[in-house]
Fold:
Amino acid sequence: MTSELSFIAALRSLASHPAARGLDDDCAVLDIGGETLVLTHDTMVEGVHFLAGQDPADVAWKLVATNVSDLASKGAEPVGVLLGYQLGEGDARFIEGLGEALAHYGAVLLGGDTVGGAAPQHLGLTAIGKATFRPVPSRGGARVGDGVWVTGALGGAMMGLEALRSGVGDSTAYRRPVARLAEGTALAPVVSAMMDVSDGLLLDAWRMARASGVCLALDSATAPLACPESRRAEALRWGDDYELLFTLPPGLSPPVAASCIGHVIARPAGGLQMDGAMMESGENLGFEHH
Amino acid sequence: MTSELSFIAALRSLASHPAARGLDDDCAVLDIGGETLVLTHDTMVEGVHFLAGQDPADVAWKLVATNVSDLASKGAEPVGVLLGYQLGEGDARFIEGLGEALAHYGAVLLGGDTVGGAAPQHLGLTAIGKATFRPVPSRGGARVGDGVWVTGALGGAMMGLEALRSGVGDSTAYRRPVARLAEGTALAPVVSAMMDVSDGLLLDAWRMARASGVCLALDSATAPLACPESRRAEALRWGDDYELLFTLPPGLSPPVAASCIGHVIARPAGGLQMDGAMMESGENLGFEHH
Structure:
């Protein structure tokens, strides 16, 4: 079995279309007619991306939200989705949640496929959006001197998962994440780079640094938290919050509520610095799936 | 667990976009930027749609071919695909076969997602094409008096699967099906209805009859076979041949090699007649997955 990264590296050699800006990104960007489409596909597996026994309506919601979050990071507005669905016990609830999420984001179900089969349940969703601003932001545009910003607060999904598991507290942030669609559209014309924080702030910041060929220097204390201060180190590594991470040229302020959490420096290219210390990619930067 | 059909019926209530012509079809049709896009998503599961232990290069080829066949049935030319891939033992071979298939069909890998997890392996592919003719053919356009036609011959995939399982004979037709892309493009301007034969001629003909509100009257002896005559009844029910089933107004001949296998009559609406006898939907009309 190859690792995810080496498989993607091999796949990239197949992605030669001039209009496709590369698999390293969360989305494909495709110029069609007079429009620019943004396309993304995410797979969720029971026991990996959602809990066995979780309310299928919440699972459906999250499947849509994670894909729409990818569109949001490109400043794209959703058009529709195609669903790859493995039939299971909770089909009616799944359809309820799917309908709620599609209505919330103004997307429609364009098509898809269903299969049978045993657990764990596999779900795939392809989301198609239209770019509202061109060029479409990428994660590769951060420049030395830029400020590093993040919308919202981190750690909410972590607390929500604990609430869901324990039955105590509010699990909404984990069960029903909200993609930053309006923020993405407002930010697209002004950012130098943008992506969503799906796999943890540190891991995603490191990916942005690598894609941009720069170093992101973060000040960990400046990241707003949706969890107790004692959980800060975990919150920066926890996924599923779906906030937007972006860079802005120096002196610019974002048109939406967001926090400046660092700035871009030149070296080492592809590096990540936190509170003045270099982070190594071998360290646990994120990518936790629960 | 709901049945596939009732799940799709429930999903259809979510497919309200005016440009989306409904989930009952294999593809979504979406007008965007002056172009008409055709989108399809197919899922393949190890042990259901392909054999455990099958060469992953063949599996990748088939995953692409089945989706491109859906595009072909709409007269669309492939643009690109998004892959939902579950990492496994044969990743390098999978990538080889994927590259071959994409090159063959002039499509590129636009993006996707990978997941880990245990067998059975789940694979999803979304294919995006551009319509070459508008309006895009649907399965719902067959009219009374039309001729019913099919490209190529049936039963090849059945023989190929037997060859693959036994190790005797040529398994190519099962392992490496070829989507009728050129035929689909040539046929799109002249057909009244079109779809691909993925789940068996009889089942797919019945679906066309139902979508068109007519009855398809087939003459079973006229369907060309890629298997011994003694296997005719099976061949008409076997899937995976990916030929094109289409109807033409009376008197028209198709611009590609094809066989007339029947004609369209009025009643019963949504019915299927073979050799003068009505077929019941409860009978085994096809949809065999091996």
